Amino acid sequence: MALPAPLHGVIPPVCTPLDPRGEIDTASLTRLVNHLVDGGVHGLFALGSTSEVAYLTDAQRGTALEAVIKAADGRVPVLAGVIDTTTPRVLDHARTAAALGADALVATAPFYTRTHPREIAAHFRHLRTAVDLPLFAYDIPVAVHSKLSPSLVRELAEDGTLAGLKDSSGDEGSLRRLLTALGGRTARHSGPAPGFSVLTGSELTVDAALLAGADGVVPGIGNVDPAAYVRLYDAARAGDWEQAAAEQERLVTLFSLVDVGPESEMGRSSSALGAFKAALHLLGVIDRSATAFPQRPLSDDAVAEVGRRLTAAGLLKPGGAATL
């Protein structure tokens, strides 16, 4: 389907449920897509960090993306992560995504070896020329060790290379500088790149980003409570910043479930992704809460704590039934 310009709203990075063999559980993934679409989201980002894309084989990536596209059934656009170390490898993923029917691509800068901004620009331009789909840059320096500067992003926005940016840098000042360079809050879409979409991946400061002129959010915990992010977005669009802040504060409290896994026992990715999947399992959306190897599973106590936090958020009844 044609993407709106700019792409806007709530676009969750879709979790990837796994079966007992560690393969893609397409039935659970289909239910998850329906859970998200029924929650009112405006798009889906398949094969992002929350999707555990770095842990999946190429075949698993294809299976997961195909399942998301099929389940979405044209109701919302599907953005496909084509994340990999070098341009040729990213191109392989991009061509697969295009053949499967993805609506847009999401790519990081090249990584493993450090790259110069001119090399990063050439990478994105080559991808956009080779595969005729809208291309979104994914700024996540904690993973790729390169920060996309506001000046580089603006250059690639103005020349049409990039359709948008997912900013997961955690650098709120840099995001604000970019929004200002693109025209600021009041003139974002009459400035130098009128159709360019800025999406924040900082899910705890969405109200502030929207107030500054961002177009939407890509929230990992939006898998668990998509409707809350939609309410936040709708309140911001209506100028009801008090309601937007109230929704944001509730989501900040719910987000604390990402820390249920002790740091002495597992990495933060294992804890966060395990918590998202445990929550989805408790809500009856997916069949299993397993994460990809070698991430460590949450303990029974940690899963019970996830349940308590879902109950406190009003998503789970005290007896364990979902309130969705």
Automatic annotation (TrEMBL):
The active site is at Y138, K166. One of its GO terms (molecular function) is 4-hydroxy-tetrahydrodipicolinate synthase activity. Pyruvate binds at T50, V218. The keyword Ubl conjugation does not apply. Keywords: Lyase, Schiff base. Gene3D superfamilies: Aldolase class I. Its EC number is 4.1.2.-. InterPro entries: Aldolase_TIM, DapA-like, Schiff_base-form_aldolases_AS. GO terms for biological process: small molecule metabolic process. This is 2-keto-3-deoxy-galactonate aldolase YagE. It comes from Streptomyces platensis.
